[in-house]
């Protein structure tokens, strides 16, 4: 009897265990199927550029992964949340998610592929916030993983894109073109139109920076020809923005309006902040040139608003990066004894505070004196209207050079310069002639590197001539010409009924705020006050 009962108990245990295993298997299957379904939807909306829906599915996957201790899926979801915030230009949040996923992936041995993906995205974020060295390090490490451990060619393509953007950020546009041509080639091998279009957009942007606007337009139009319903809205917006930008440079302003409006509609609908910011800027420029000032003002306001949000995000990301560095420093110091830590850290803090206060005071005082002197000189240059600006600037240079010769000194920063004083004077004459003849300051996008290239000078040489001969940086130098131009325009009958913003644009400024600030600083009056006085003088 006892043996029969024992057999029954054993059979029951086996049945219960089997059912428990079946239930567990069914649960795991259900979880896996749910994650596969959510991942499919997640990828679909990412490819479409609909990032809000992409985030909804990512949040759901992360919740399931954490609840069921699925660490690898959790890492993937956290990485994708970083991608979402980068697409939204929220770089501080993106940085947090990438660093969190990188910390978790280090706990999983030989997880090379996931680590590579995280490093690529981390490198892209560092590049956006201006930390080029960290971006370069992340891309190099990712490339090493691909070379040493293999991986799909799409990883190599993503690294080429990152290195291309890094090269462009360092103004090495030809090197950038090489990387994007490589990424385009991979896209063609994979027959992936989205990769090809992204590469063509980047190639178009590089040609734009190289001032080869016809090539920029051609590559953008090639990208547009590949667009279909499966292509990301973000890529389509970027393509139309590039077409509009190239058409502006080719003086086809009315043709540029439509593609830019399409880009703005997509950027606004799907919250592509960076694209929206730049489109507003281009449209403000177009409408000003076409005399549609109300539209121009509205787009300028849109640009200023989006620019504020964008710069705020960059600032927060850099602050976060600094906090992470400080936290790491604190962890390194934690190995020391508490007492030793206290005295060391306290001593460092006190020393840094005292040094900082002293340095700040001396620097501020010296800077204030220098700016006061330079401002006085600039106002005198613009006040005397009996001579051309070129002659007045040249006279100022002669005074500064004479002062250097009498003191028998050279500017500290250029003690090892290859330029003689005679070279500097020749270059200065060349710069002043070019400014008077070509008026490059009327282009609101002009950069110091552009002028240096036009005059067959290096950027360093150009900067040295301005600093030594005129004691001015590039922005101050350009603004002198722009304000002088604005004053001249205000005195012309043609501009009597023009709004201040229109005059600002025609003088080379890209926003009313920067124009008002520079005008008040250099003339001592607001643009409105100055024009009112000029009109009264003309009447008299």
Polypeptide structure, described:
- The protein has helices at residues 2-47, 51-67, 71-87, 91-105, 112-128, 132-149, 153-169, 173-190, 193-209, 213-225, 233-249, 253-270, 273-289, 293-333, 338-383, 389-407, 421-438, 448-454, 459-470, 474-490, 500-506, 512-523, 527-539.
- The chain is built from 23 helices and no strands.
- Mean pLDDT is 81; it is low at 332-340.
- It has 540 residues and is mainly α.
- Among the domains are: 192-324, Tetratricopeptide repeat domain (Serine Threonine Protein Phosphatase 5, Tetratricopeptide repeat); 420-537, Homeodomain-like (Arc Repressor Mutant, subunit A), CATH 1.10.10.
Oligomeric assembly: single chain
Using only CA atoms, what is the Rg? 30 Å
Order of H and E elements: HHHHHHHHHHHHHHHHHHHHHHH
Specify the CATH class of the domain at 192-324.
Mainly Alpha
Number of strands: 0
Largest sheet: none
In the CATH classification, which architecture of the domain at 192-324 applies? Alpha Horseshoe
Give the low-pLDDT segments.
332-340
Shape: elongated
End-to-end separation: 129 Å
CATH superfamily of the domain at 192-324: Tetratricopeptide repeat domain
User: What name does CATH use for the topology of the domain at 192-324?
Assistant: Serine Threonine Protein Phosphatase 5, Tetratricopeptide repeat
């Amino acid at each position: 009897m006892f043996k029969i009962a024992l057999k029954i108990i054993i059979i029951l245990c086996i049945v219960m265990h089997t059912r428990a295993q079946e239930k567990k298997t069914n649960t795991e299957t259900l979880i896996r199927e749910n994650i596969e379904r959510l991942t499919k939807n997640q990828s679909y909306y990412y490819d479409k550029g609909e990032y809000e829906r992409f985030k909804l599915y990512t949040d759901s996957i992360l919740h399931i992964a954490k609840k069921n201790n699925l660490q690898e899926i959790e890492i993937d979801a956290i990485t994708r949340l970083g991608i979402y915030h980068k697409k939204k230009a929220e770089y501080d949040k993106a940085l947090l998610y990438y660093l969190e996923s990188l910390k978790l992936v280090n706990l999983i041995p030989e997880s090379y592929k996931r680590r590579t993906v995280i490093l690529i995205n981390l490198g892209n974020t560092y590049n956006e916030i201006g930390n080029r060295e960290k971006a370069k390090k992340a891309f190099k490490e990712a490339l090493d993983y691909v070379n040493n451990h293999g991986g799909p060619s799409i990883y190599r393509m993503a690294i080429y894109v990152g290195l291309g953007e890094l090269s462009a950020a360092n103004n090495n546009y030809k090197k950038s073109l090489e990387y994007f041509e490589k990424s385009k080639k991979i896209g063609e091998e994979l027959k992936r139109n989205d990769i090809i279009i992204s590469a063509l957009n980047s190639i178009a942007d590089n040609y734009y920076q190289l001032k080869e606007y016809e090539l920029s337009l051609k590559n953008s139009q090639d990208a547009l020809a590949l667009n279909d319903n499966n292509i990301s809205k973000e890529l389509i917006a970027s393509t139309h923005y590039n077409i509009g930008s190239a058409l502006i440079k080719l003086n086809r302003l009315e043709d540029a309006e439509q593609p830019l409006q399409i880009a703005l509609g997509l950027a606004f609908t799907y919250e592509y902040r960076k694209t929206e910011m730049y489109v507003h800027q281009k449209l403000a420029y177009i409408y000003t040139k076409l005399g549609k000032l109300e539209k121009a003002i509205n787009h300028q306001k849109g640009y200023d608003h989006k620019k504020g949000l964008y710069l705020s995000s960059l600032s927060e990301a850099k602050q976060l990066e600094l906090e992470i560095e400080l936290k790491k420093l604190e962890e390194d110091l934690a190995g020391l004894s508490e007492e030793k830590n206290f005295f060391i850290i306290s001593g460092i803090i006190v020393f840094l505070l005292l040094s900082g206060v002293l340095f700040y005071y001396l620097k501020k005082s010296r800077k204030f004196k220098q700016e006061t002197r330079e401002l006085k000189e600039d106002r005198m240059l613009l006040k005397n209207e009996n001579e051309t600006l070129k002659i007045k600037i040249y006279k100022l240079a002669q005074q500064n050079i004479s002062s250097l010769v009498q003191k028998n000194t050279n500017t500290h920063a250029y003690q090892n310069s290859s330029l003689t004083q005679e070279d500097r004077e020749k270059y200065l004459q060349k710069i002043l002639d070019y400014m008077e003849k070509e008026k490059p300051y009327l282009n609101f996008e002009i950069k110091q590197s552009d002028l240096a290239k036009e005059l067959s000078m290096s950027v360093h040489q150009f900067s040295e001539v301005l600093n030594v001969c005129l004691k001015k940086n590039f922005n101050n130098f350009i603004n002198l010409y722009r304000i002088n131009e604005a004053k001249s325009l205000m005195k012309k009958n043609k501009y009597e009924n023009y709004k201040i913003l229109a005059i600002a644009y025609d003088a080379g400024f890209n926003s009313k705020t920067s124009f008002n600030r520079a005008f008040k600083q250099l003339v001592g009056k607001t643009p409105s006050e100055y024009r009112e006085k000029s009109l009264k003088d003309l009447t008299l």
